[in-house]
């Protein structure tokens, strides 16, 4: 490691559908530098507020299968009947430049990233109450009743994965939850095993950018 500012890692953010992960990830990016959002590929239809290349890469099933077969996805999973995956090239490219990557992904994908990147940070977002999850899912008017019911059922199963995650953040208010995530990322950037990776303390005290 040539520079303390080059410390980077994947940050997996998971939690039951509707818990507000995407809002929190965007809130965190506004507060911190050297942090970017992973844009996933998915076979699901775009919601009317979403844009190709900004929220997701909306692709066909054939294209998704091709990316999977050619090893272009760092992880992938079937969620709510559709396929989702993380393009590997951007993830690795950004991290090589010292940017940590936020991955708003489901628990199956989260576990795959933790296995492939042992230095990944994992955060599980929990709702302030179960009623809140239901309210949020229903508030997203673009989904059908059937889709909402499926998401609620999946949410119960997803909660069980909490034990695989390193950190737990309650999303009671966006501001407080983002502040908690910020503390996690700042502390992780100061871990001894990251800052002294491949260098001695003598090298480290001579480096710039230690105030990360
Ligand atoms: P939505 O369709 O509501 O945008 O997302 C549904 C679920 O898929 C969410 O839990 C979201 O975190 C997850 N998801 C989004 N992108 C990916 C991805 O690239 N990989 C995996 N495994 N899950 C994803």
Q: Brief description of this entry?
A:
The chain has 212 residues and is α/β, with parallel strands linked by helices.
- Output the CATH homologous superfamily of the domain at 4-38 and 99-205: P-loop containing nucleotide triphosphate hydrolases
Instruction: Please tally the helical runs, counting DSSP H or I stretches of 4 or more residues.
Output: 9
Average per-residue pLDDT, rounded, comes to: 92
Q: Based on the structure given, which CATH architecture of the domain at 4-38 and 99-205 is correct?
A: 3-Layer(aba) Sandwich
Taking strands numbered 1, 2, ... along the chain, how are they ordered across the largest sheet?
2-7-1-8-9
In helices, the fraction of residues equals 40-55%
Instruction: Calculate Rg over CA atoms.
Output: 18 Å
Distance between the termini: 14 Å
Total number of β-strand segments?
Answer: 9
What sequence of helices (H) and strands (E) makes up the elements? EHEEEHEEHEHEHHEHHH
Anisotropy-based shape: globular
> Which spans have pLDDT < 50 for at least 5 consecutive residues?
none
**Biggest sheet, open or closed, and with what strands and sense?**
5 strands, parallel
Fraction of residues in β-strands: 15-25%
